[in-house]
Structures are given as structure tokens and as C-alpha cells.
Amino acid sequence: MSAARNPGRVVGWWYLFLVLLGPLRLIYIPNKLFVVDNAAATAANIAAHPWLFRGGMVSGLLGAVVLIFLALAFYRLFKGVDQQLAVLLVITGGVMPAVLTLVNVATDAGALTVAQGPDFLSVFDKPQRDALVMLFLRLYHHEITAAEILWGLWLFPMGALAYKSRFVPRFIGVWLVINGIAYVIQSFTGILFPAYQNTVFLISQPALFGELAIMLWLLIKGANPPALQPEPS
């Protein structure tokens, strides 16, 4: 069945686009350019590779747009199951995280601007500018930590909808709720106990595959909810 006739497969494709966009800024660029506890080296790397860093910003812009269309595709898939939960999914998983992603793009723009050292920043000496670059990057990280609570919350209605739908396996619905709980715990850990954030992330890895499970199911199997019955007049 073609994607155009299968709302589930449309969701799967949007999810795949989002998954492909994420690693550039979240994984590759930090590993390539950032040096832990070394502001000078990090700022120098960003200044030496501005187009790579801008590529991460573009991936953030595209990711925000894809996230909105993904949430709308989920709404189309699940609105017949429970419209209120489907609306909640759009708000917590589409609109609000997309806005935070756009804020992070602006934060990266600040880091790049300071790293390149334009004339109007000449009032700051080099170590001060390097510290400002690191501050912008830390703000990016804290914004991601804050966004994780939304990454978790949108999985609660998604999991409930998948469980109730009967056209997505119920175990995936349960897995998504567990995945959501893991994200919420990660968010609070990053705020309250940041030294343990990486440890909690590693421990929660099996739970975090819930999103991958529903993405692969919808890509491979698809899902075509039954047509809504018109209400009696």
C-alpha cells in the first residue's frame, strides 16, 4: 500500500527524516569540534569549521519543521482513536519542542558569532570571547535538557493512543510510555543531579528504543485506521 493511502507509513517517513537530521548537531558536531573544559580549543574549532557548524544549525531548522509535520501526521493517524489525546500529542510533541529547537538555533548563532570575533566584540579579550562561546554551548545543552521533558510527555499520549488503537501493537504503546518516563527522569536528573546525567542516559538506553520501534513498525507495516463513522443527525 502506498504511503499516500497509508497514514501510518506517512508518520514513519516523517519520523525517519527527523532521526536522520538529529545526529549531525547532537552527536557529530560535539565529537568533532567541542573539547571538554577547553573553551579556547572549542572556540577555535568552531571558527575554523564555520560551515560544519552552520550545517548543524540548518539541521535544527529542518528538524523543527519536520517535527511539526510529524505531529500533524500522528494527529491524522490517531484522531479517530481519541481526539483529545491526539491534540495533546501535537502540542507537546510538535509545537512546543519545535519552538525550543528554533531557540537553540539562535543560541548556536550566538556561539558562532562570538567564535568568529567580529569587530564589535573587540571590547572583549580573547579568553573572554572563548568563555562566551562556551556559555552559549552550555545554554544549548541546558535547553536540550529542558526539552527532554517534552520529548517524554508527548510519548504518554502517543503510547496511550497506540495501545487503544488496535492497529499498532499494544506492546509498542507500553514501550512508548516507558520511553517517556525515561526522558522525564533524564530531564530532572540533568537539572537536579547533572553529574549523573550521562549515567542515567546509559541505563535508560533500552527504554529509549520505544520511538525506534514505532517508527520501524509504521515504516514497514504501516497503519490504516478504520474510517470514521458519521454521527447520526
Give the topology, please.
Layout: H1 7-33, H2 39-48, H3 50-78, H4 83-116, H5 126-153, H6 155-165, H7 170-192, H8 197-203, H9 210-220
Number of helices: 9
Shape: elongated
How much is the radius of gyration in Å? 20 Å
Helical fraction? over 70%
Element-by-element helix/strand order: HHHHHHHHH
Structural class computed from helices and strand pairing = mainly alpha
Strand content: under 5%
Mean pLDDT rating: 92
Distance between the termini: 34 Å
Care to count the β-strands? 0
Biggest beta-sheet profile: none
Q: Give the number of domains.
A: 1
Enumerate the spans where pLDDT stays under 50 for 5 or more consecutive residues. Answer: none
Overall description:
- Helix 4 runs antiparallel to helix 6.
- The protein is mostly helical and 233 residues long.
- It has 9 helices and no strands.
- It has one domain (3-220).
- The mean pLDDT is 92.
- The two termini are 34 Å apart.
Please summarize what this structure is.
The protein has helices at 7-33, 39-48, 50-78, 83-116, 126-153, 155-165, 170-192, 197-203, 210-220. By secondary structure, it is mainly alpha-helical. The radius of gyration is 20 Å and the shape is elongated.
